[in-house]
Amino acid sequence: METPSVEMNIPNFRHFHLPDLNVDIARSIPDLNINIFSFENSQIDSSSELHFEDEMGDETFEPHLIISEGENIVEAQAASSGIRKKKNLTNNERQAVYTMLQQKSNNGRLGKEVTRLVASQFSVSMRTIQRIWKQTDYGRAHANVHHRKTKNCGRKRVEIDFERIRGIPLHRRTTIRSLACSLQTKKSTLFRRFKSGEIRRHSNAIKPFLKEENKKVRLQFCISMLERDSIPHDPSFIGMYNFVHIDEKWFYMTKKMNRYYLLPDEEDPLRTCKSKNFIAKVMFLAAIARPRFDAHGNETFSGKIGVFPFVTHEPAKRTSVNRVAGTLETKPITSVNKEVIRSYLIEKVLPAIKEKWPREDACRPIFIQQDNARTHVDRNDELFRRAASQDGFDIRLISQPPNSPDLNILDLGFFSAIQSLQYKEPAKTVDELLAAVQRSFQAFPSTKSNRIFLTLQSCMIEIMKVKGSNKYKIPHIKKAMMERVGQLPTHLKCDSELVQEVFNYLS
Known about the structure:
- With 507 residues, the protein is α+β, with helices and mostly antiparallel strands.
- It has helices spanning 25-28, 63-70, 76-80, 91-104, 114-122, 126-135, 149-152, 176-183, 187-195, 212-224, 338-356, 382-388, 409-422, 430-443, 446-465, 479-484, 496-506, and strands at 15-16, 50-54, 57-61, 243-252, 281-289, 292-293, 299-301, 304-309, 311-315, 328-332, 366-370, 395-399.
- The protein is elongated.
- The termini are far apart.
Protein backbone atom coordinates (compact mmCIF):
# COMPACT_ATOMS: atom_id res chain seq x y z
CA MET A 1 0.00 0.00 0.00
CA GLU A 2 1.18 3.43 -0.76
CA THR A 3 1.57 5.74 2.10
CA PRO A 4 -0.71 8.73 1.69
CA SER A 5 1.07 11.99 1.53
CA VAL A 6 0.15 14.73 3.94
CA GLU A 7 0.37 18.27 2.84
CA MET A 8 1.06 20.87 5.55
CA ASN A 9 0.36 24.53 5.16
CA ILE A 10 3.52 26.19 6.36
CA PRO A 11 3.49 29.98 6.49
CA ASN A 12 5.61 31.56 3.83
CA PHE A 13 8.29 33.53 5.64
CA ARG A 14 10.31 35.13 2.94
CA HIS A 15 12.91 36.46 5.24
CA PHE A 16 13.54 35.14 8.74
CA HIS A 17 16.70 36.54 10.20
CA LEU A 18 18.03 34.70 13.24
CA PRO A 19 20.73 36.12 15.43
CA ASP A 20 24.20 34.71 15.17
CA LEU A 21 24.53 32.07 17.90
CA ASN A 22 28.28 32.31 17.86
CA VAL A 23 28.35 35.81 19.23
CA ASP A 24 28.87 36.55 22.89
CA ILE A 25 25.53 35.78 24.58
CA ALA A 26 26.37 37.90 27.59
CA ARG A 27 26.44 40.98 25.44
CA SER A 28 23.20 40.33 23.63
CA ILE A 29 21.01 39.08 26.51
CA PRO A 30 20.11 41.68 29.14
CA ASP A 31 20.82 41.05 32.81
CA LEU A 32 17.74 39.38 34.30
CA ASN A 33 18.54 40.71 37.78
CA ILE A 34 17.85 44.29 36.78
CA ASN A 35 14.45 45.80 36.25
CA ILE A 36 13.09 44.03 33.19
CA PHE A 37 11.26 47.12 32.05
CA SER A 38 14.28 49.45 31.92
CA PHE A 39 15.83 48.76 28.54
CA GLU A 40 16.65 52.28 27.51
CA ASN A 41 20.06 52.23 29.22
CA SER A 42 20.75 48.55 28.56
CA GLN A 43 23.67 47.41 26.45
CA ILE A 44 21.50 45.82 23.69
CA ASP A 45 22.67 47.22 20.37
CA SER A 46 20.84 47.32 17.09
CA SER A 47 22.59 44.22 15.83
CA SER A 48 20.90 42.07 18.49
CA GLU A 49 17.34 43.02 17.49
CA LEU A 50 15.13 40.39 15.94
CA HIS A 51 13.83 41.35 12.51
CA PHE A 52 10.70 39.75 11.11
CA GLU A 53 9.37 40.36 7.67
CA ASP A 54 6.01 39.05 6.61
CA GLU A 55 3.83 39.44 3.60
CA MET A 56 2.59 42.80 4.80
CA GLY A 57 6.03 44.35 4.75
CA ASP A 58 9.12 44.82 6.88
CA GLU A 59 8.45 45.09 10.63
CA THR A 60 11.12 45.58 13.30
CA PHE A 61 10.46 43.97 16.72
CA GLU A 62 11.79 46.28 19.41
CA PRO A 63 11.24 44.87 22.95
CA HIS A 64 11.80 48.09 24.86
CA LEU A 65 9.14 49.90 22.88
CA ILE A 66 6.58 47.11 23.36
CA ILE A 67 7.13 46.97 27.11
CA SER A 68 7.11 50.73 27.61
CA GLU A 69 3.87 51.02 25.67
CA GLY A 70 2.18 48.03 27.38
CA GLU A 71 3.21 48.65 30.97
CA ASN A 72 4.18 52.31 31.11
CA ILE A 73 5.84 51.74 34.53
CA VAL A 74 9.48 52.58 34.93
CA GLU A 75 11.62 55.60 34.54
CA ALA A 76 15.07 54.76 33.19
CA GLN A 77 17.22 56.91 35.46
CA ALA A 78 15.74 55.48 38.67
CA ALA A 79 16.30 51.93 37.40
CA SER A 80 19.92 52.56 36.45
CA SER A 81 20.65 54.23 39.82
CA GLY A 82 19.25 51.25 41.80
CA ILE A 83 16.41 53.17 43.47
CA ARG A 84 13.69 50.81 44.60
CA LYS A 85 10.21 51.86 43.57
CA LYS A 86 7.76 52.59 46.34
CA LYS A 87 4.76 50.32 46.50
CA ASN A 88 2.41 52.86 48.00
CA LEU A 89 2.38 56.59 48.46
CA THR A 90 1.07 58.18 51.61
CA ASN A 91 -1.82 60.61 51.38
CA ASN A 92 0.53 63.55 51.89
CA GLU A 93 2.78 62.33 49.10
CA ARG A 94 -0.20 61.83 46.78
CA GLN A 95 -1.32 65.37 47.52
CA ALA A 96 2.18 66.64 46.73
CA VAL A 97 2.11 64.74 43.43
CA TYR A 98 -1.24 66.30 42.54
CA THR A 99 0.02 69.78 43.42
CA MET A 100 3.09 69.34 41.23
CA LEU A 101 1.00 68.04 38.32
CA GLN A 102 -1.35 71.01 38.62
CA GLN A 103 1.56 73.41 38.47
CA LYS A 104 2.94 71.75 35.35
CA SER A 105 -0.42 71.27 33.58
CA ASN A 106 -1.93 73.53 30.95
CA ASN A 107 -5.74 73.56 30.92
CA GLY A 108 -5.89 70.00 32.24
CA ARG A 109 -3.26 68.74 29.83
CA LEU A 110 0.17 67.51 30.85
CA GLY A 111 3.32 67.99 28.83
CA LYS A 112 5.12 65.17 27.14
CA GLU A 113 7.70 64.57 29.88
CA VAL A 114 5.78 65.78 32.93
CA THR A 115 4.57 62.35 34.02
CA ARG A 116 8.02 60.88 33.65
CA LEU A 117 9.69 63.66 35.62
CA VAL A 118 7.19 63.52 38.51
CA ALA A 119 7.44 59.72 38.67
CA SER A 120 11.22 60.00 38.80
CA GLN A 121 11.11 62.56 41.59
CA PHE A 122 8.81 60.46 43.78
CA SER A 123 10.46 57.14 42.81
CA VAL A 124 7.25 55.55 41.59
CA SER A 125 6.01 54.27 38.28
CA MET A 126 4.52 56.49 35.65
CA ARG A 127 1.32 54.46 35.86
CA THR A 128 0.93 55.52 39.50
CA ILE A 129 1.21 59.19 38.54
CA GLN A 130 -1.32 58.68 35.74
CA ARG A 131 -3.80 57.03 38.12
CA ILE A 132 -3.55 59.96 40.53
CA TRP A 133 -4.10 62.44 37.69
CA LYS A 134 -7.07 60.44 36.44
CA GLN A 135 -8.52 60.28 39.95
CA THR A 136 -8.64 64.10 40.00
CA ASP A 137 -10.65 64.12 36.77
CA TYR A 138 -7.60 65.52 34.97
CA GLY A 139 -6.87 68.48 37.17
CA ARG A 140 -10.26 69.29 38.64
CA ALA A 141 -9.89 71.74 41.52
CA HIS A 142 -10.20 70.54 45.12
CA ALA A 143 -10.06 66.90 44.11
CA ASN A 144 -9.56 64.16 46.69
CA VAL A 145 -6.45 62.16 45.90
CA HIS A 146 -6.36 60.08 49.09
CA HIS A 147 -6.04 56.37 48.59
CA ARG A 148 -8.79 54.01 49.67
CA LYS A 149 -6.59 51.19 50.89
CA THR A 150 -7.24 51.91 54.56
CA LYS A 151 -10.77 50.54 54.25
CA ASN A 152 -10.45 48.14 51.37
CA CYS A 153 -7.06 46.47 51.91
CA GLY A 154 -5.65 44.16 54.53
CA ARG A 155 -7.19 41.71 56.92
CA LYS A 156 -10.47 42.92 58.34
CA ARG A 157 -10.49 43.85 62.02
CA VAL A 158 -12.23 41.41 64.34
CA GLU A 159 -15.13 43.18 66.01
CA ILE A 160 -15.42 42.65 69.78
CA ASP A 161 -18.27 43.92 71.92
CA PHE A 162 -16.31 45.21 74.91
CA GLU A 163 -19.49 46.03 76.79
CA ARG A 164 -19.78 42.30 77.45
CA ILE A 165 -16.76 42.58 79.74
CA ARG A 166 -18.83 44.42 82.32
CA GLY A 167 -20.96 41.32 82.82
CA ILE A 168 -18.02 38.92 83.21
CA PRO A 169 -17.11 38.17 86.87
CA LEU A 170 -13.78 39.56 88.03
CA HIS A 171 -12.37 36.12 88.85
CA ARG A 172 -12.71 35.27 85.15
CA ARG A 173 -10.80 38.38 84.11
CA THR A 174 -7.47 37.75 85.85
CA THR A 175 -5.55 36.86 82.68
CA ILE A 176 -5.75 37.59 78.95
CA ARG A 177 -6.39 33.89 78.33
CA SER A 178 -9.34 33.62 80.70
CA LEU A 179 -10.87 36.87 79.43
CA ALA A 180 -10.48 35.73 75.81
CA CYS A 181 -12.17 32.46 76.68
CA SER A 182 -15.08 34.34 78.26
CA LEU A 183 -15.42 36.57 75.20
CA GLN A 184 -15.01 33.58 72.86
CA THR A 185 -12.21 35.25 70.92
CA LYS A 186 -8.53 34.60 70.34
CA LYS A 187 -5.93 35.48 72.93
CA SER A 188 -3.72 37.26 70.37
CA THR A 189 -6.63 39.41 69.21
CA LEU A 190 -7.43 40.47 72.76
CA PHE A 191 -3.76 41.19 73.48
CA ARG A 192 -3.58 43.54 70.50
CA ARG A 193 -6.62 45.39 71.83
CA PHE A 194 -4.87 45.64 75.19
CA LYS A 195 -1.78 47.15 73.54
CA SER A 196 -3.97 49.67 71.70
CA GLY A 197 -5.53 50.81 75.00
CA GLU A 198 -9.06 49.50 74.49
CA ILE A 199 -8.76 47.47 77.71
CA ARG A 200 -6.45 48.14 80.63
CA ARG A 201 -4.63 46.12 83.25
CA HIS A 202 -5.25 46.81 86.92
CA SER A 203 -3.22 45.49 89.86
CA ASN A 204 -5.54 45.20 92.82
CA ALA A 205 -4.17 45.10 96.37
CA ILE A 206 -6.21 44.13 99.41
CA LYS A 207 -6.86 47.12 101.67
CA PRO A 208 -7.86 47.15 105.33
CA PHE A 209 -11.52 46.82 106.11
CA LEU A 210 -12.95 50.05 107.54
CA LYS A 211 -15.97 50.34 109.76
CA GLU A 212 -18.03 53.48 109.87
CA GLU A 213 -16.28 54.51 113.09
CA ASN A 214 -12.89 54.06 111.40
CA LYS A 215 -13.91 56.37 108.56
CA LYS A 216 -14.97 59.11 110.95
CA VAL A 217 -11.70 58.85 112.87
CA ARG A 218 -9.79 59.15 109.61
CA LEU A 219 -11.74 62.29 108.72
CA GLN A 220 -11.08 63.78 112.15
CA PHE A 221 -7.36 63.06 111.78
CA CYS A 222 -7.28 64.79 108.37
CA ILE A 223 -9.09 67.82 109.76
CA SER A 224 -6.60 68.01 112.65
CA MET A 225 -3.77 68.39 110.11
CA LEU A 226 -5.22 71.68 108.80
CA GLU A 227 -4.05 75.05 110.02
CA ARG A 228 -6.59 76.36 112.53
CA ASP A 229 -6.25 79.93 111.32
CA SER A 230 -6.90 78.94 107.69
CA ILE A 231 -10.32 77.42 108.38
CA PRO A 232 -12.89 78.03 106.92
CA HIS A 233 -11.90 80.57 104.24
CA ASP A 234 -8.59 79.21 102.93
CA PRO A 235 -7.90 75.76 104.45
CA SER A 236 -4.32 74.56 104.12
CA PHE A 237 -2.30 71.79 105.74
CA ILE A 238 0.38 72.34 108.32
CA GLY A 239 4.00 71.87 107.29
CA MET A 240 4.38 68.69 109.40
CA TYR A 241 7.97 69.64 110.21
CA ASN A 242 7.59 68.65 113.87
CA PHE A 243 6.28 65.12 113.16
CA VAL A 244 8.38 61.96 113.34
CA HIS A 245 6.82 58.89 111.72
CA ILE A 246 7.88 55.52 113.11
CA ASP A 247 6.98 51.99 112.06
CA GLU A 248 8.39 48.46 111.92
CA LYS A 249 9.15 46.40 108.85
CA TRP A 250 10.66 43.02 108.01
CA PHE A 251 13.62 43.07 105.64
CA TYR A 252 14.42 39.74 103.99
CA MET A 253 17.77 38.37 102.89
CA THR A 254 16.43 37.73 99.39
CA LYS A 255 13.18 37.38 97.48
CA LYS A 256 11.51 34.12 96.54
CA MET A 257 11.44 35.15 92.89
CA ASN A 258 14.03 37.31 91.16
CA ARG A 259 14.40 38.43 87.56
CA TYR A 260 17.79 38.72 85.85
CA TYR A 261 18.89 39.74 82.37
CA LEU A 262 21.51 37.38 80.92
CA LEU A 263 23.37 36.82 77.69
CA PRO A 264 22.15 33.95 75.51
CA ASP A 265 25.18 31.81 76.34
CA GLU A 266 25.19 32.58 80.08
CA GLU A 267 24.26 29.84 82.51
CA ASP A 268 21.12 30.29 84.58
CA PRO A 269 21.94 31.18 88.20
CA LEU A 270 21.05 28.72 90.96
CA ARG A 271 19.77 30.07 94.27
CA THR A 272 19.13 27.67 97.12
CA CYS A 273 17.94 27.78 100.71
CA LYS A 274 16.73 25.22 103.22
CA SER A 275 13.14 26.46 103.04
CA LYS A 276 11.77 29.32 100.97
CA ASN A 277 9.06 29.79 103.59
CA PHE A 278 11.69 30.61 106.21
CA ILE A 279 14.08 33.00 104.44
CA ALA A 280 16.32 34.82 106.93
CA LYS A 281 14.82 38.19 107.90
CA VAL A 282 15.30 40.99 110.40
CA MET A 283 12.76 43.50 111.72
CA PHE A 284 13.74 47.17 111.73
CA LEU A 285 12.27 50.18 113.48
CA ALA A 286 12.52 53.24 111.24
CA ALA A 287 12.05 56.86 112.29
CA ILE A 288 11.79 59.63 109.71
CA ALA A 289 10.89 63.34 109.86
CA ARG A 290 10.34 65.86 107.12
CA PRO A 291 13.62 67.24 105.73
CA ARG A 292 14.32 70.95 105.66
CA PHE A 293 15.97 73.18 103.08
CA ASP A 294 17.10 76.79 103.05
CA ALA A 295 16.00 79.48 100.60
CA HIS A 296 18.56 78.28 98.04
CA GLY A 297 17.43 74.65 98.18
CA ASN A 298 20.36 73.43 100.27
CA GLU A 299 19.57 70.70 102.77
CA THR A 300 19.80 71.80 106.40
CA PHE A 301 18.19 68.72 107.99
CA SER A 302 17.80 65.34 106.28
CA GLY A 303 14.96 64.17 108.51
CA LYS A 304 16.55 60.70 108.82
CA ILE A 305 16.38 59.94 112.52
CA GLY A 306 17.53 56.35 112.07
CA VAL A 307 16.68 52.74 111.28
CA PHE A 308 17.23 50.36 114.20
CA PRO A 309 17.37 46.55 113.81
CA PHE A 310 15.78 44.27 116.38
CA VAL A 311 18.82 42.06 116.96
CA THR A 312 20.89 40.75 119.84
CA HIS A 313 24.55 39.77 120.05
CA GLU A 314 25.15 36.39 121.65
CA PRO A 315 28.37 34.36 122.00
CA ALA A 316 28.55 31.19 119.94
CA LYS A 317 27.97 28.11 122.05
CA ARG A 318 30.19 25.79 120.05
CA THR A 319 32.91 25.90 117.42
CA SER A 320 31.98 25.49 113.76
CA VAL A 321 33.61 25.96 110.37
CA ASN A 322 32.46 29.61 110.43
CA ARG A 323 33.64 30.71 113.91
CA VAL A 324 35.07 29.49 117.16
CA ALA A 325 33.11 29.16 120.36
CA GLY A 326 32.57 32.43 122.19
CA THR A 327 32.47 34.60 119.05
CA LEU A 328 29.66 37.16 119.20
CA GLU A 329 26.92 36.38 116.70
CA THR A 330 24.11 38.66 115.52
CA LYS A 331 20.74 37.04 116.14
CA PRO A 332 17.38 38.53 115.04
CA ILE A 333 14.78 39.12 117.72
CA THR A 334 11.88 36.99 116.53
CA SER A 335 9.37 38.12 119.19
CA VAL A 336 8.94 41.89 119.44
CA ASN A 337 6.64 42.83 122.32
CA LYS A 338 5.71 46.04 124.08
CA GLU A 339 8.74 45.95 126.39
CA VAL A 340 11.10 45.69 123.42
CA ILE A 341 9.36 48.58 121.65
CA ARG A 342 9.52 50.74 124.80
CA SER A 343 13.23 50.05 125.25
CA TYR A 344 13.97 50.93 121.63
CA LEU A 345 11.98 54.15 121.88
CA ILE A 346 13.72 55.26 125.06
CA GLU A 347 17.23 54.00 124.30
CA LYS A 348 17.50 54.54 120.55
CA VAL A 349 14.79 56.75 119.02
CA LEU A 350 14.68 59.51 121.64
CA PRO A 351 18.50 59.95 121.83
CA ALA A 352 18.67 60.08 118.02
CA ILE A 353 15.95 62.75 117.87
CA LYS A 354 17.66 64.88 120.50
CA GLU A 355 20.98 64.55 118.71
CA LYS A 356 19.83 65.35 115.16
CA TRP A 357 16.90 67.71 115.69
CA PRO A 358 17.45 71.33 114.56
CA ARG A 359 18.31 73.46 117.60
CA GLU A 360 16.12 76.36 116.54
CA ASP A 361 13.03 74.13 116.93
CA ALA A 362 14.09 72.19 120.02
CA CYS A 363 11.67 74.17 122.18
CA ARG A 364 8.63 73.27 120.05
CA PRO A 365 6.63 70.09 120.69
CA ILE A 366 7.73 67.06 118.67
CA PHE A 367 5.12 64.43 117.87
CA ILE A 368 6.06 60.80 117.24
CA GLN A 369 3.33 59.25 115.11
CA GLN A 370 2.82 55.48 115.35
CA ASP A 371 0.11 53.05 114.29
CA ASN A 372 -2.26 51.20 116.60
CA ALA A 373 -0.40 47.90 116.89
CA ARG A 374 -0.90 46.14 120.20
CA THR A 375 2.83 46.05 120.87
CA HIS A 376 3.15 49.83 120.65
CA VAL A 377 3.55 51.96 123.74
CA ASP A 378 0.60 53.95 124.99
CA ARG A 379 0.94 57.69 124.53
CA ASN A 380 0.54 58.19 128.30
CA ASP A 381 3.22 55.66 129.20
CA GLU A 382 5.02 57.00 132.28
CA LEU A 383 8.50 55.71 131.44
CA PHE A 384 8.39 57.19 127.97
CA ARG A 385 7.04 60.56 129.12
CA ARG A 386 9.76 60.86 131.74
CA ALA A 387 12.52 60.19 129.18
CA ALA A 388 10.90 62.37 126.48
CA SER A 389 10.76 65.47 128.72
CA GLN A 390 14.46 65.47 129.59
CA ASP A 391 17.12 67.81 128.15
CA GLY A 392 14.56 70.55 127.48
CA PHE A 393 12.61 68.61 124.83
CA ASP A 394 8.86 68.14 124.63
CA ILE A 395 8.35 64.87 122.75
CA ARG A 396 4.91 63.31 122.63
CA LEU A 397 3.37 60.14 121.24
CA ILE A 398 0.31 60.22 118.99
CA SER A 399 -1.49 57.41 117.20
CA GLN A 400 -2.72 57.48 113.65
CA PRO A 401 -6.22 56.17 112.88
CA PRO A 402 -6.71 52.40 112.97
CA ASN A 403 -6.32 50.46 109.72
CA SER A 404 -4.76 53.48 108.02
CA PRO A 405 -1.29 52.71 106.62
CA ASP A 406 -1.93 55.40 103.99
CA LEU A 407 -1.58 58.04 106.72
CA ASN A 408 2.04 57.12 107.53
CA ILE A 409 4.79 58.12 105.11
CA LEU A 410 6.78 54.95 105.87
CA ASP A 411 4.02 52.71 104.57
CA LEU A 412 3.06 55.24 101.92
CA GLY A 413 6.34 55.03 100.05
CA PHE A 414 9.50 55.16 102.15
CA PHE A 415 9.73 51.47 103.06
CA SER A 416 9.19 50.21 99.52
CA ALA A 417 11.82 52.64 98.23
CA ILE A 418 14.60 51.62 100.59
CA GLN A 419 13.69 47.94 100.24
CA SER A 420 14.20 48.14 96.49
CA LEU A 421 17.63 49.67 97.19
CA GLN A 422 18.41 46.95 99.71
CA TYR A 423 17.66 44.15 97.24
CA LYS A 424 20.34 45.53 94.91
CA GLU A 425 23.02 44.57 97.43
CA PRO A 426 23.65 40.84 97.96
CA ALA A 427 23.51 39.68 101.56
CA LYS A 428 24.36 36.21 102.80
CA THR A 429 24.60 36.84 106.53
CA VAL A 430 22.60 38.85 109.04
CA ASP A 431 25.42 41.37 109.43
CA GLU A 432 25.52 41.93 105.68
CA LEU A 433 21.74 42.44 105.67
CA LEU A 434 21.98 45.03 108.46
CA ALA A 435 24.69 46.91 106.59
CA ALA A 436 22.70 46.83 103.33
CA VAL A 437 19.59 48.26 105.01
CA GLN A 438 21.61 51.00 106.71
CA ARG A 439 23.25 52.01 103.42
CA SER A 440 19.89 52.02 101.64
CA PHE A 441 18.40 54.19 104.39
CA GLN A 442 21.19 56.74 104.09
CA ALA A 443 21.24 56.63 100.27
CA PHE A 444 17.58 57.53 99.90
CA PRO A 445 17.43 61.18 98.70
CA SER A 446 15.93 63.69 101.11
CA THR A 447 14.19 65.43 98.22
CA LYS A 448 12.12 62.33 97.56
CA SER A 449 11.35 62.00 101.25
CA ASN A 450 10.04 65.56 101.15
CA ARG A 451 7.75 64.65 98.25
CA ILE A 452 6.22 61.79 100.24
CA PHE A 453 4.99 64.30 102.82
CA LEU A 454 3.20 66.19 100.06
CA THR A 455 1.77 62.88 98.82
CA LEU A 456 0.46 62.29 102.34
CA GLN A 457 -1.37 65.63 102.25
CA SER A 458 -2.85 64.83 98.82
CA CYS A 459 -4.06 61.49 100.22
CA MET A 460 -5.77 63.33 103.06
CA ILE A 461 -7.64 65.45 100.52
CA GLU A 462 -8.79 62.31 98.70
CA ILE A 463 -9.85 60.71 102.00
CA MET A 464 -12.05 63.71 102.72
CA LYS A 465 -13.58 63.45 99.24
CA VAL A 466 -14.60 59.80 99.77
CA LYS A 467 -15.86 60.43 103.33
CA GLY A 468 -13.06 58.57 105.10
CA SER A 469 -12.93 55.53 102.82
CA ASN A 470 -9.75 54.06 101.41
CA LYS A 471 -11.21 53.58 97.92
CA TYR A 472 -9.33 56.29 96.06
CA LYS A 473 -6.37 56.71 93.75
CA ILE A 474 -3.27 58.52 94.89
CA PRO A 475 -3.23 61.69 92.76
CA HIS A 476 -0.20 62.68 90.70
CA ILE A 477 0.60 66.37 91.13
CA LYS A 478 3.93 66.39 89.20
CA LYS A 479 6.08 67.06 92.24
CA ALA A 480 9.37 66.33 90.46
CA MET A 481 8.58 68.81 87.68
CA MET A 482 7.56 71.53 90.16
CA GLU A 483 10.73 70.88 92.13
CA ARG A 484 12.89 71.34 89.03
CA VAL A 485 11.37 74.73 88.28
CA GLY A 486 11.46 75.78 91.94
CA GLN A 487 7.68 75.80 92.44
CA LEU A 488 7.24 72.86 94.82
CA PRO A 489 4.97 73.99 97.68
CA THR A 490 5.71 73.24 101.32
CA HIS A 491 2.06 72.40 101.99
CA LEU A 492 -1.12 71.86 99.99
CA LYS A 493 -4.36 73.76 100.16
CA CYS A 494 -7.79 72.23 100.51
CA ASP A 495 -11.13 73.27 99.09
CA SER A 496 -13.18 75.20 101.66
CA GLU A 497 -16.43 73.60 100.47
CA LEU A 498 -14.92 70.14 100.93
CA VAL A 499 -13.88 70.97 104.49
CA GLN A 500 -17.36 72.24 105.23
CA GLU A 501 -18.87 69.01 103.88
CA VAL A 502 -16.62 67.01 106.19
CA PHE A 503 -17.69 69.08 109.19
CA ASN A 504 -21.33 68.55 108.31
CA TYR A 505 -20.77 64.82 107.87
CA LEU A 506 -19.04 64.47 111.25
CA SER A 507 -21.70 66.49 113.02
